[in-house]
Design brief:
The two termini are 28 Å apart. The protein is built from 15 helices and eleven strands. The chain is of the alpha/beta class. It folds into two domains: 201 residues, D-Maltodextrin-Binding Protein, domain 2 (3-Layer(aba) Sandwich); 189 residues, D-Maltodextrin-Binding Protein, domain 2 (3-Layer(aba) Sandwich), CATH 3.40.190.10. The protein is globular. The N terminus is likely disordered. The protein has a five-stranded mixed sheet with strand order 2-1-3-11-6. It has a four-stranded mixed sheet with strand order 8-9-7-10. The protein has a two-stranded antiparallel ribbon with strand order 4-5. Helix 8 packs across helix 15.
Length: 432
């Protein structure tokens, strides 16, 4: 599911100022800040597993702190519409779960609390992996704290690779190795089978590491694009060559690649390598053994950029920001809360959380978080600048890249025309 929201899709808070806050939150709790030093409201989105974990964690926090938490939760659809209405009415919850891709939009509107005064007490960030300590930072100011640790893995079907007697990908592989291995798999596997998914539309799962390996990135700190025409042309040209050789799948298979289901080309037995997914999502869908490796390297660098998963933020008009900050810290550092939340918000954001969770997890999740810990160490070795927070308009840029890549793949546009159209669409989306 694409949990991003474009600038045009975002309900402008300025246009809503003076509006009336939407009352109620279904049967999930009352609306608005508590106005009491020993209570607060907390809003999040999620499925049943995340909801149950949050409720249990909040009970632990209340027992230890004496601070009562009124919970408000729903699915992702409509979450920000309701939140926007409450912001406009000056009555949002005290603590909210925030989409990483949207934090810059809300920070720029002046609706979020800058967290400096709460660090290092009560919010202690020292346990986080170093790259995640800057999570939720917009234009040098911190507005949120990380809930998880995301990265850009590639999965491969170990069962298929072994059967075909092709060398399996390893964590030190390069893009040249990727081309070779994908081609060998396609040749050995036969008609209608392909070495890898076509990852040319994959912005954060493949293109961003590739860019960072070359000293570029998706975005700069000022919210503009961090790459140029030459970089995108090289990217599309690389994948066009693989497509022409049959090493990667034809574009008609990409429609099923956006969700972790039995129809995904990896699970359906149509490709042997894919980007964009972890073992925890894919392993339960197949009887085959799956392996996990980093995106191919350039000059030894992974180019990985640890993402903060979902963020926790304190609205500027929170009635109890001090209690909200204490709850934020509990999610980061309280061992009982960490174990209760598990991996419902992504891989652990710290070695401390990893060590607490490893004995409690199933094999697929264990491999995912061990891999995430490996990636965090590789990121430190890369010593690359932390990526910029996704700017307002991020969702439209993502859509524009997807469309440009697929237009090239389907032969609807030349690489040059697709690149030109992408930058035109991106400029409009970013309003620059």
């Amino acid at each position: 599911m694409n949990e991003g929201l474009s600038r045009r899709g975002f309900i402008g808070l300025a246009a809503m100022v003076g509006g009336t806050a939407l009352a109620g939150c279904g049967a999930k709790g009352s609306t608005g800040g508590s106005g009491s030093t020993d209570s607060l409201t907390f809003r999040w989105w999620g499925g049943d597993e995340r909801n149950k974990a949050y409720l249990a964690a909040l009970a632990i926090f209340t027992k230890k702190s004496g601070i009562k938490v009124t919970s408000q939760y729903s699915g992702y659809d409509g979450y920000f519409d309701k939140l926007n209405t409450e912001f406009a009415g000056g009555n949002p919850p005290d603590l909210i779960q925030m989409d990483t891709a949207l934090v810059s939009t809300y920070a720029n509107k002046g609706t979020l609390t800058e967290l400096t005064k709460f660090i290092p007490s009560p919010i202690v960030l020292d346990t986080f992996y170093e790259p995640l300590r800057a999570g939720g930072t917009v234009k040098g100011k911190r507005y949120g704290t990380a809930s998880g640790s995301g990265n850009a893995p590639m999965l491969f079907d170990q069962t298929v690779v072994d059967k075909l007697k092709v060398d399996a990908p390893t964590n030190d592989w390069t893009w040249d190795d990727f081309s070779t291995i994908a081609g060998e798999i396609s040749k050995a596997w036969g008609k209608g089978k392909y070495g890898a998914i076509d990852s040319s539309p994959d912005d954060s799962g493949a293109f961003q590491p590739w860019l960072r390996q070359r000293g570029k990135d998706l975005y700069l700190q000022d919210g503009t694009l961090g790459f140029d025409v030459d970089a995108l042309t090289e990217w599309f040209t690389f994948w066009s060559g693989l497509r022409a050789s049959g090493a990667v799948c034809p574009p008609n298979l990409l429609s099923a690649a956006g969700s972790a289901t039995g129809a995904h080309p990896l699970i359906a037995g149509q490709v042997a390598i894919t980007s964009g997914w972890g073992l925890a999502q894919m392993a339960p869908l197949t009887q085959h053994k799956l392996g996990i490796v980093v995106v191919p390297r350039t000059n030894g660098k992974t180019g990985q950029a640890l993402s903060a998963g979902v963020l926790l933020c304190i609205p500027k008009s929170s009635k109890n920001p001090d209690a909200a900050a204490k709850l934020m810290n509990a999610f980061i550092n309280d061992a009982d809360v960490i174990k209760t939340m598990g991996v419902t918000r992504g891989n652990p954001p710290s070695a401390k959380a990893k060590d607490l969770l490893l004995p409690l997890l199933d094999p697929a999740n264990k491999r995912d978080i061990e891999y995430a810990d490996y990636v965090a160490k590789e990121v430190a070795k890369d010593a690359l600048p932390a990526p910029a927070t996704a700017p307002p308009g991020y969702g439209d840029v993502k859509t524009a890249l997807d469309m440009a890549a697929k237009n090239v793949a389907f032969g609807k546009a030349s690489i040059g025309d697709a690149v030109t159209q992408f930058f035109k669409d991106a400029k409009k989306a970013l309003d620059v």
